[in-house]
Amino acid sequence: MTFSPDGLLLATGHGAKAVQLWDTVEQRRAGPALFGHTERVLSVAFSPDGRLLATGSEDGTARLWDVDSRTLITESLDSAGVVDSLLFAPDGNSLYIKGRTIRRWDITDPRQPRKAEKHFANNLSSAPVLSTDGLLITGHVGGIAQLWEAQEQTRIDAPLRGHASDVTALALAPSGDVLAAGSDDVQLWDVRTRQMIHEPLACSGDMVTEMAFSRDGRTLVAISGDRISEDPEEPDFSFNIWETTTWTKLPSPHIGHSGHVTASAFSPDSRLFATGGIDGQLRIRTLPTAMSGERPVP
């Protein structure tokens, strides 16, 4: 799931090969679902100007939609495997598609996209993150995070090694200077010095599955749970919330989902945090000050 840059829309991907747009003011669907993929939709991303929506699927393709008209604007963009993550470049001229590897497409003219290159990274284990100045960070098996100069496809220094297990989630502070890497805990890195800047942040459960900084940079949220549950229909997932000045852990609300939590996103104004899960529920909360304000979207 992802919020539009103006916060007025929320896009969600579904197992029914569909993408749904939601009106965040009226708390209702913003038109009918968008159909174009032939398998489950696993990833969505708005362009920086909010005019395009990119969607990725188990069918191995990404698609570009015109948000205003709700129409496909180009042929599907192929990928190396299931498309579980999408990133627009800050200037909106490139789209990074993560499958088994990462492919960059030039979408300067979104109606005639051009495959620029297959990207470098192997053994990927999490969705990558991209900074406003073109720094791409990838998470890998074996507890490694790697920094890249995205456009030139060049590694920046040695990889960051901290976790004993695979890196399962990454989040980059809006300022671009702090990287949070999630696995069985959350480790914080200074992007400039490549040094760990704090003791690891402990999480409930045994693995971080979702992680995000608020857009104002004041809050870090990690969703964690057990990889193997005694009851697969009721795995134990929970919120972990920290304020980023002192990295103090804040009280957390009940997760509110039955089953795995598969998506999360902060709104652009940092007021709202949305979560989605295999229970088919989309929930929107205020974090961290009004944690009782859970508002399910119908």
From TrEMBL:
Keywords: Repeat, WD repeat. The keyword Repeat applies. The keyword Repeat applies. It comes from the Bacteria. This is Anaphase-promoting complex subunit 4 WD40 domain-containing protein. It holds the Pfam family WD40. WD repeats lie at residues 1-23, 34-75, 160-185, 254-284. Gene3D superfamilies: YVTN repeat-like/Quinoprotein amine dehydrogenase.
